[in-house]
Design goal:
Subcellular location: Cell envelope
Oligomer: single chain
Domain Tetrahaem cytochrome: 37-132
Helix content: 55-70%
Bound molecules: heme C
Shape: flat
Transmembrane segments: 224-243
Structural class: mainly alpha
Pfam families: Cytochrom_c3_2
Largest sheet: none
Mean pLDDT: 91
Cofactor: heme c
């Protein structure tokens, strides 16, 4: 039994049982992982580190696929088993070409266990001025900001619709795809490409936003139409009442 609630889709494993009961460095990963987007999506210790999540005695045996802790130069391949497109973009980039020679790896920017859903806040002076002037980071961020604002605005509208019981599945899917394309853009760290691709994405996002605006307008019209029906029914009831009185 675990002494803590499991987030989202995560399952109880011997890895979690044993590591959460430890006091040394082995226990440090558990808490940050619990609050991560990986835990929320059911990606657990063994999905990254390998090993046997059901057999405590052999859990960390290489024969059961245990990979251990990756060396710095192995991190992109380690994360890239799942994030294939991003791994490829990264490896081609100025950052990837500097792997092992002072360039950042995935965990430099995202962490290893406390990984969160990404936002542009990841590009900030503190983490991007460690190795070179912040200016080049600021330029790429500026190119991405408008797209980010559009995505956030659409997400907020969708959240409101959902609260009102509107079916948003199709829009959710389109936004998900556009959001992925957009967030993937970063890893090439190529400011010119980000600027060009962002312009295209903003066009697509604009269309999506218009579709949602139309739904909003239709709903407003329906509310007015609804009010008319109610008013008409009231008038009819009143007339009927008066008519009956005159007949009496
Ligand atoms: C019965 C207890 C136990 C189980 C089960 C267990 N571990 Fe461990 N694990 C440990 C201990 C003890 C260490 C050493 C920790 C330390 O250095 O303090 C460790 C270390 C590790 C390390 C670091 C290894 C290194 O080279 O530094 C990783 C990664 C790890 N475990 C992952 C897992 C995964 C994944 C599973 C499940 C498939 C798992 N563990 C299951 C007890 C366990
Ligand atoms: C998203 C993939 C991922 C998941 C999930 C994950 N780890 Fe790790 N873990 C890593 C990476 C990458 C490193 C190496 C970190 C570095 O190089 O800074 C690491 C390092 C470690 C270490 C070595 C000490 C340290 O903190 O650097 C231990 C112990 C460990 N992980 C245990 C666990 C346990 C236990 C779980 C489940 C609660 C877990 N990990 C879940 C990717 C993951
Ligand atoms: C076993 C597969 C797997 C491994 C290995 C893995 N991830 Fe993930 N990762 C996922 C899944 C599934 C999600 C949640 C769904 C999504 O956003 O794609 C996710 C989400 C993320 C997100 C948030 C994406 C967003 O939409 O905001 C980041 C950042 C991330 N992972 C980075 C990493 C890093 C860094 C590593 C290596 C330390 C790693 N991942 C290893 C499967 C994996
Ligand atoms: C661990 C060191 C390190 C960190 C942290 C780092 N970079 Fe870099 N960055 C490099 C290296 C090394 C290069 C390639 C050599 C050079 O141009 O100086 C580079 C190059 C770049 C380039 C130019 C790419 C090109 O093709 O000319 C941009 C843009 C960039 N980084 C943005 C960022 C952003 C944004 C962050 C923060 C999210 C960041 N960097 C964090 C090391 C780092
Ligand atoms: C220099 C810092 C830096 C490095 C190195 C880096 N990332 Fe990212 N990553 C970011 C930033 C910044 C974003 C989000 C930008 C945005 O808001 O679009 C991001 C976005 C992501 C996302 C979300 C994209 C999506 O499709 O939803 C994932 C997943 C991810 N990174 C995984 C990785 C993996 C795996 C590696 C290593 C191969 C890696 N990152 C290397 C900074 C970095």
């Amino acid at each position: 039994m675990l002494a803590f609630p499991l987030p989202g889709g995560a399952q109880e494993t011997v890895c979690l049982q044993c590591h959460s009961a430890q006091t040394g460095p082995g226990s440090k990963a558990v808490k940050p992982w619990q609050a991560s987007i990986h835990a929320e999506n059911g990606i657990s210790c063994h999905d990254c580190h390998g090993g046997d999540p059901k057999d405590a005695a052999n859990a960390m045996s290489p024969a059961r696929g245990f990979l251990g802790v990756p060396k710095e130069t192995d991190v992109p391949a380690f994360c890239g088993r799942c994030h294939v497109g991003i791994r490829d973009d990264y490896l081609q980039s100025a950052h990837g070409r500097a792997l092992g020679k002072g360039g950042p790896t995935c965990v430099t920017c995202h962490g290893a266990h406390d990984i969160k859903k990404v936002t542009l806040d990841l590009i900030n002076e503190k983490s991007c001025s460690r190795c070179h002037p912040y200016e080049r980071a600021a330029n790429i961020k500026a190119a991405m900001e408008k797209t980010e604002r559009l995505i956030v605005a659409i997400e907020e509208r969708l959240a409101r619709f959902k609260g009102e019981g509107v079916d948003t599945e199709a829009t959710d899917k389109s936004l998900f795809a556009l959001r992925n394309t957009y967030h993937r853009l970063f890893h090439e760290v190529n400011t010119a490409r980000v600027t060009n691709e962002s312009a295209k994405l903003q066009g697509e996002l604009g269309k999506l936003d218009q579709t949602l605006q139309k739904i909003d307008e239709q709903r407003a019209k329906r509310k007015i139409a609804g009010a008319f029906v109610v008013a008409a029914a009231l008038v009819a009831a009143l007339l009927f009442h008066l008519l009956r009185k005159t007949c009496d």
